[in-house]
């Protein structure tokens, strides 16, 4: 199967679907819940308050410096769960494969998803694979949905944003989008430009344990820091002042942006977060963030 | 916006994304949880045992006799949740739109989803919309994931299938796939051939209240009754005997199948279920199923 490509019959629900499941998907994800192979998974949560989110991933190219679509699909949903103030627990994976897609590539992606899920401490418990005709897709699209346990005592909401709060950014911005653009246009860039794609749930948990008073957490993905802060400003009815000097951008990312005419503030990140917090908690929060070995910078 | 088509910018996370959300999606789905517009929804479940499932929908044509891709996307996931012995509660919706897709068609689909969710008693609480380049999709692909409350006292598992159990089928088979094929090939068929696409959670709940001893529930979608029973046979290590006479197929569906060379047993259904149960509960179960106004037939 390794040398082959995806055929329409891999999505038929028949023998080839079964082979794909048994030879490619289960060996990577296999766990007692998924192995039940039911219409749905039966899972236990910590209590009766859960976070629930979904995202589809349609990135091009599928493989890029620092990751691939599979890593993105796990990190993205794990991070969205974390940003709601929850501990991510379970993921679903829905794949739409284009006829002719390389099975070796599929295996690489699936293995990365498994590895990233392990790293993030979440379980892939249910999934679905569909095949579309050649020319009706773009290799592979992945949807992940996720469930998390809401961390007690936290209440993350843009409604809790107040004038005077600090906005803390967890590190360099623009790395992910720059790596993707480089991959798309086959630019040769310094190897230091890599997607920042990473699960943030470990960091968020420590932050929320230390400072449950955090008002808002958000990861500045599509649309970047600018779109994310705009959305929060609108939802909260609060103006947000950015001091450009305090927002960290790698010189090499800045250089690429200058050449291509992009503004790093609008570029997607996949491993960074913004936290809104009362200034009296900022130093405590930054201490936790620094000890997690994530570069942090305060924007007021 | 109504006359327009989807542009790449509708997926950018910027102004057009926001307009699409505010003008098309929120007016249809809007509810207090979704309106929070967070990275994820925060929802309450009945206890700490939940069912979790996902499915992607890639049907062609998007509109067919008896429904459209949106109805399918809600019913499919609601039914998968029901088949695990749960009460479906919350859905996520991930849409992948192709550049150039008609916004009027999108609105029709979104409205159908909203209507079907209401009918099934579930809430659409979180979602995501991506746009792919023209030629990298097929109008619209929809992924739904869902969470349900496991009904206490039930234990649905193919491992509980035993020799001697009855297999109960809830009605006519092959209607959905026949309606789809007719739409795809622009065949003129009797208007009685319509997709059976419907939420089954109401029926399942009544069945499980009456007979919590049901061993397995499964909806024979992709691959039809044949693929579903094959899978259960394999998972349970039990042979299953079908008596052709007892499996209801509409004469007009049978006629179309004969012409096109299809076997109704392999055709997808979207509003039917199979239940495995000890014969001593069969008459009680059939009574409940008949009172729900669903045609039922027993296959032993």
**Beta-strand segment tally of chain A:** 11
Helix and strand content put the structural class of chain A at alpha+beta
CATH class of the largest domain in chain A: Alpha Beta
Can you tell me the overall shape of chain A? globular
List unreliable stretches of 5+ residues of chain A. 295-300
Kindly report the oligomeric state of this protein: homodimer
Topology record:
The structure is a homodimer of 300-residue chains.
Chain A: H1 15-29, H2 32-35, E1 41-44, E2 49-57, E3 63-64, E4 67-68, H3 69-83, E5 86-98, H4 103-120, E6 123-132, E7 140-150, E8 166-169, H5 175-184, H6 201-210, E9 216-218, H7 224-236, H8 251-260, E10 274-277, H9 282-291, E11 297-299
Parallel strand pairs in A: 5-6
Antiparallel strand pairs in A: 2-7, 3-4, 5-7, 8-10, 8-11, 9-10
What does this structure look like?
The structure is a homodimer of 300-residue chains. Helix content of chain A is 35%, strand content 22%. Chain A has 300 residues and is an alpha+beta fold. The first copy, chain A, has 2 domains: 37-150, 60s Ribosomal Protein L30, Chain: A; 158-298, PurM-like C-terminal domain (Phosphoribosyl-aminoimidazole Synthetase, Chain A, domain 2, Alpha-Beta Complex), CATH 3.90.650.10. In chain A, the strands form 3 sheets. Chain A has a 4-stranded mixed β-sheet with strand order 2-7-5-6. In chain A, strands 9-10-8-11 form a 4-stranded antiparallel β-sheet, with helices on one face. In chain A, strand 3 and strand 4 form a beta hairpin. The model of chain A is unreliable at 295-300 (pLDDT under 50). Chains A and B meet through strand 1, strand 2, helix 3, strand 5 and strand 6 of A and strand 1, strand 2, helix 3, strand 5 and strand 6 of B. Strand 1 (41-44) of chain A pairs antiparallel with strand 2 (49-57) of chain B.
């Amino acid at each position: 199967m390794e040398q082959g490509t995806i055929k329409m019959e891999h999505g038929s629900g028949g023998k080839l679907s079964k082979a794909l499941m048994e030879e490619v998907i289960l060996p990577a994800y296999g766990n007692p819940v998924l192995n039940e192979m039911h219409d749905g998974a039966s899972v236990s949560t910590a209590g009766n308050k859960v976070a629930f989110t979904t995202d589809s991933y349609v990135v091009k190219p599928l493989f890029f410096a620092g990751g691939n679509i599979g890593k993105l699909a796990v990190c993205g949903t794990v991070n969205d769960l974390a940003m709601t103030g929850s501990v991510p627990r379970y993921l679903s994976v829905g794949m739409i494969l284009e006829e002719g897609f390389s099975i070796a590539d599929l295996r690489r992606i699936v293995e990365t998803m498994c590895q990233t899920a392990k790293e993030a401490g979440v379980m892939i418990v249910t999934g679905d694979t569909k095949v579309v005709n050649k020319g009706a897709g773009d290799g592979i699209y992945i949807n992940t949905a996720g469930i998390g346990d809401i961390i007690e005592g936290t209440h993350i909401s843009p409604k809790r944003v107040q004038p005077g709060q600090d906005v803390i950014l967890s590190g360099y911005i623009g790395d992910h989008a720059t790596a993707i653009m480089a991959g798309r246009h086959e630019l040769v860039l310094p190897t230091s430009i890599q997607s920042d794609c990473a699960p943030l749930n470990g960091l968020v948990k420590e932050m929320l344990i230390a400072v449950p008073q955090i008002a808002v957490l958000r990861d500045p993905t599509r649309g970047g820091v600018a779109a994310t802060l705009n959305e929060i400003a609108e939802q909260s009815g609060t103006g947000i002042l950015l001091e450009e000097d305090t927002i960290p951008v790698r010189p090499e990312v800045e250089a690429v942006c200058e050449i291509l005419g992009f503004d790093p503030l609008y570029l997607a990140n996949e491993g960074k977060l913004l936290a809104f917090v009362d200034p009296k908690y900022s130093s405590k929060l930054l201490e936790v963030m620094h000890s997690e070995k994530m570069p942090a910078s305060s924007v007021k």
